[in-house]
Amino acid sequence: MKLTRMLPASCMLLSLMIPQALLAQKPTGSESPSYYNIGGVLSNNESESHFGTVIAHLNFDQQYVPRGTTYYDKTIRIDKNPIKTALNVCKHLISRRVYAVVVSHEPTGDLSPAAVSYTSGFYQIPVIGISSREAAFSDKNIHVSFLRTVPPYYHQADVWLEILSHFGYTKVIIIHSSDTDGRAVLGRFQTTSQTNYDDIDVRATVESIVEFEPKLDSFSSYLMDMKTAQSRVYLLYASQEDAYVIFRDAAIHNMTDYGHIWIVTEQALSANNTPTGIIGLKLNNAENETDHIKDAIYILASAIKEMTVNETITEAPKDCDDSGAIWESGKRLFGYLKTRNIRGETGQVAFDDNGDRMYAEYDVINVHENHSFVKVGSFHYDSEKRKMRLKINDSSITWPGNTGKKPEGIMIPTHLKVLTIEEKPFVYARKLLDDEIDCADDEVVCPHFNITNGNEQEYCCKGYCIDLLKALAQRINFTYDLALSPDGQFGHYQLKNHTTGIGTTVKKEWNGLIGELVAERADLIVAPLTINPERAEFIEFSKPFKYQGITILEKKPSRSSTLVSFLQPFSNTLWILVMVSVHVVALVLYLLDRFSPFGRFKLSSNDGTEEDALNLSSAIWFAWGVLLNSGIGEGTPRSFSARVLGMVWAGFAMIIVASYTANLAAFLVLERPKTKLTGINDARLRNTMENLTCATVKGSSVDMYFRRQVELSNMYRTMEANNYDTAEQAIQDVKDGKLMAFIWDSSRLEYEASKDCELVTAGELFGRSGYGVGLQKASPWTDAVTLAILDFHESGFMESLDKEWIFHGNVQQCEQFEKTPNTLGLKNMAGVFILVGAGIVGGIGLIIIEVVYKKHQIKKQKKMEIARHAADKWRGTIEKRKTLRASLAMQRQYNVGLNSVSKSVSQNAEKSRYPILPPLPRTPERAWPKDKEYIVNRKNNSGSGAGKPPPRYMPTYATDVSHLIV
């Protein structure tokens, strides 16, 4: 708001003649005061007079001062002695109960405003600075109630960023003094760049930071280091004296000529030897103290008015010698002051959380010939968009070297440091042997510097990416030094401990190839580096030299060749039914042939050659012979009913055998196994309960992809514990069967699948992306590399690299292998041979059992024969004794009775000739063959002719008694 017109002199005099007794009035009750004393610590009489005039005008401005409220001014002169200034504040301001203090800047000293801030801040009395721009006043731990209508010096970093964005410079070198303000400029630049500039492509990055001690004598050593950097854009914060030395030495080293850009702050712009072409800043109304006094008073009145509406203001402290109690109303009044946002004499006035002026306006100054300063632009507040806006007239700018052509701002090096990583088939790394002096013609030296132990080993590299690097170097004309990744990783975020003066802090940093490029220890990455958002935020990528995606590698699930592989054509149930059917049919055949009248009994006209009916053993043999298509020599069914069943069984056997043969060919010969997984959406991959191990490489682009995908979070948590350090280890574990699925870039996995036909990729590609060449942010080589790669695609060069390094012509071989039938081997049919072997072993075992059993039977028969022979011998001895006794008895009778009748003699002789035999022992019929013959003879004799009774004796045992017959 503009000030009101000057009031008549009578009004001014009336305000000055207010009785002093009124100043001693105090507010009653809980009401806010009706008058407010405003203190001023000013630098000259003009400022003091203007301070009183503004307050007098303020009392008649009802927009800021409500009816019944009056403001009074209390001013003192600032002293270059800060202690004296502090004492004056206590004696002449605080003692008169000032509610706020407006402080100016003493021309010859910087400490007096700080003394005012310390003294007033102790009582929480707000202090409004109108000329103090040091960074120290932003520290609210020290200057607790200080705010200012001028911006601090380090806020010029905001304008620097706008100028860099306007000209398109993205890589700079910051030169600053090692004091509080110099470090604040650097911190402000880095913080604002990361916070307000989301687009990494236009964000300015600091390539180098040069910090120097104030009041230096020479700057040449710093300039020599700056010459080796790529950036040629210098941002300078220095005092007038230091800037003089820097410009002097820069001119000596030709660093103020064309190609170098200097953007400086206000202090450096005021040096006497500023070179032509320098761009600097100048704060609007920086020296106009009267305008800042007016803005400060009106801001204070606005805050007090709003505060009186919302709460009661207690009276201000009155004495520096009291207990020093904090004035709570002053603390809250300071909060109201920071929320002000008005249009004043110096532009749009607002404050940040530190109480520093926002929306400060600057002029962009360009130094022309003869040390003339020309305004070429402005940094001003846009009231429509309510933000600051930079406007520069490019055509009116004179650049270093007194030319109107804008420099590139960067020196393009022609010798680059290139990094790569071993990843077949893109990069093959071979360690150089001790007896080898140099690599082969198709290889490039690529040393590996181990960051763990500091050792360096020589390697030779070749492959897809090496050929691409050679083509790029030839096409866009640069030389290079190639090296392998120091830690053997592509690069990912990792936590690192950083020790500072306060303590140890944990910070995320890139490692691997990305970390080397971010730290600017490399210029290019030529490797199978996947383009993804996380990496693209920190490095540049060329257009993809190969498009690819993510896929899954697994080993082909060969059919399980167990010992019973030949049984696979039929299910277990069917095999059991076939086994049962064989024996059931054999049993029925036996029964039919047994009970059939034409199966058991021979016909009347039988000539003795017709075979007997089937027994059970022959029936089983017949059933198995028909099923197995073997010749049946004997034991066939004889009855018609059994033969009908045999024909039906033969038809059944034919169907079973034909079905088995067809299915065996389908299962073991013609079928090629398919993949176990259908792709990334396979339920077995996403189900954490399944016993399916999958993994990828730690910290890789695939690992980052799974972290980004919310729907794959469960799967990622499961596979995270299985992840490998390198792809080589994972692929080998897939071949060995230790890992079921390896998720990785499709290019590498297709190469592995084409090289080994036992490996296969599962499902369609997902997470499609591409491999690109990595470069530093704002690298001058980005466009040249991209155009060269696009040209390679059009000319067919990239396709030739694919054929040479990735496929090797093996894809057709694997496809042919897929179409040819699989031959059966011992592994598939081992069960059949084992079955035959089991039959042989079983037969040998049975024959051994039969032999043993037969020997046991023969031994038992011999024992029985010996026992029977002993019994016969004993029986013969008994018979001889009986015969002898009978003979002796008859001899005695003969001697005693010679005259006995002949009949008696004949009868005795007959009895003697045929003695009566004892009864045979009771033994089984089949116990002894002679007994059987004896019984048969008895039967035969009993059935013959004359009805003679069987003899009770045997002629064999009769004794010759013919000598007894007379």
TrEMBL record:
Primary location class: membrane
InterPro entries membership: ANF_lig-bd_rcpt, CaM-bd_C0_NMDA_rcpt_NR1, Glu/Gly-bd, Iono_Glu_rcpt_met, Ionotropic_Glu_rcpt, Iontro_rcpt_C, NMDA1-like_ligand-bd, NMDA1-like_N
Pfam families: ANF_receptor (PF01094), CaM_bdg_C0 (PF10562), Lig_chan (PF00060), Lig_chan-Glu_bd (PF10613)
Membrane topology field: Multi-pass membrane protein
One cellular component term from this protein's GO annotations in UniProt: postsynaptic membrane
Residue numbers marked as site, Crucial to convey clamshell closure to channel opening: L677
Disulfide bridge map: C757-C814
GO biological process: ionotropic glutamate receptor signaling pathway
Annotated ranges, domain Ionotropic glutamate receptor L-glutamate and glycine-binding: 448-519
Region described as Disordered: spans on this chain: 936-956
Family: Belongs to the glutamate-gated ion channel (TC 1.A.10.1) family.
Record's function text: NMDA receptor subtype of glutamate-gated ion channels with high calcium permeability and voltage-dependent sensitivity to magnesium. Mediated by glycine. This protein plays a key role in synaptic plasticity, synaptogenesis, excitotoxicity, memory acquisition and learning. It mediates neuronal functions in glutamate neurotransmission. Is involved in the cell surface targeting of NMDA receptors. Plays a role in associative learning and in long-term memory consolidation.
Name this protein carries in UniProt: Glutamate [NMDA] receptor subunit 1
Organism ancestry: Eukaryota, Metazoa, Ecdysozoa, Arthropoda, Hexapoda
